[in-house]
Structure formats: structure tokens, C-alpha cells
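Bumping my old thread because nobody answered last time. Still need a sequence for this structure:
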């Protein structure tokens, strides 16, 4: 998968997550919401495209499975 690097203005391979099930852009395009695996932990994460920092939103509970999520705005 490739995304546009906001600092360099070029498309680059997106290798922050070891696996991605779902990916949504936030309305302002500055961040991505990702259902995937980050540092061997599956959950929902927010990836800031400007700072390139990852914030955990929801960690998948043990013996449970996050099947999908939807991005909803007002």
C-alpha cells in the first residue's frame, strides 16, 4: 500500500503497520484511522500524516475480534 507523504509530497510505501484490515481518511485528510496490527497488537489506531505518530484508539480485547469499524461524522 502507498500513501502520499505530506512533508515530501510524494507517494511512498506505507509500512507503519504490519497488517491493515480497514483504513479511513479523517475528513481533513491529515490523519488515517486504521484497523490493523501495530507492534504485534491488533486494534484501531489513528496515524497522523503530518507528525507520523500513531495513537491507539481501541485495542482488540483478548479472546475477541474487531471485525470492522465505520467512520461517522456529524
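Sorry it took so long. Here it is:
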Amino acid at each position: 500500500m502507498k500513501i502520499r507523504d505530506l512533508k515530501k509530497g510524494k507517494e511512498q510505501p506505507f509500512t507503519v503497520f504490519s497488517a491493515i484490515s480497514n483504513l479511513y481518511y479523517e475528513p481533513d485528510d491529515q490523519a488515517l484511522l486504521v484497523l490493523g496490527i501495530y507492534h504485534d497488537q491488533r486494534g484501531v489506531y489513528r496515524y497522523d500524516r503530518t507528525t507520523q505518530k500513531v495513537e491507539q484508539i481501541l485495542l482488540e480485547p483478548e479472546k475477541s475480534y474487531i471485525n470492522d469499524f465505520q467512520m461517522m461524522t456529524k
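The mean pLDDT is 86. Let me know if any region looks off to you.
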